[in-house]
Design a protein that fits this description.
The protein is mainly α. The chain has 4 helices and no strands. The chain has a domain at 41-110. The longest helix has 32 residues, at 79-110. It starts with 7 loop residues before the first helix and ends in a 10-residue tail after the last helix.
């Protein structure tokens, strides 16, 4: 399995996707935006959209874990830390989904092979 896009178009899309993820994090952490609660919501939704469909599951898991920490031990992470942790979890998962798994499944389907069988 190749972890970097093979085609020029794939590489351009990959660079744009990673740039969008980094820009979203920078905008979220911008000093003027740190105290705005709506920015945190837009950050989370943008990350879910950029990493959809795996991001939807990760966002749900993130919400449940945050609720568990709060209900069990009264722990709430500061927004800065919560958003950085969210970004660190979402970006590799989204990258794997869009630039490793989907192209691999596409190549398998194009060859007419069962994508669940081993071998590449």
């Amino acid at each position: 399995m190749n972890i970097y896009p093979r085609s020029i178009l794939g590489r351009i899309v990959c660079i744009l996707w990673v740039s969008a993820c980094v820009a979203n994090l920078i905008y979220d952490l911008w000093p003027g935006n740190i105290r705005e609660p709506d920015i945190a919501i837009s950050f989370g939704l943008t990350m879910i959209i950029l990493t959809f469909s795996i991001g939807y599951g990760l966002g749900t898991l993130d919400g449940f874990l945050s609720l568990l920490l709060y209900k069990s031990w009264g722990i709430t992470l500061p927004r800065l830390y919560a958003d950085v942790i969210m970004w660190i979890l979402f970006v590799p998962a989204g990258y794997f989904q869009w630039f490793v798994l989907v192209p691999w499944l596409h190549r398998k389907a194009a060859r007419g092979m069962d994508p669940c069988r081993d071998g590449d």
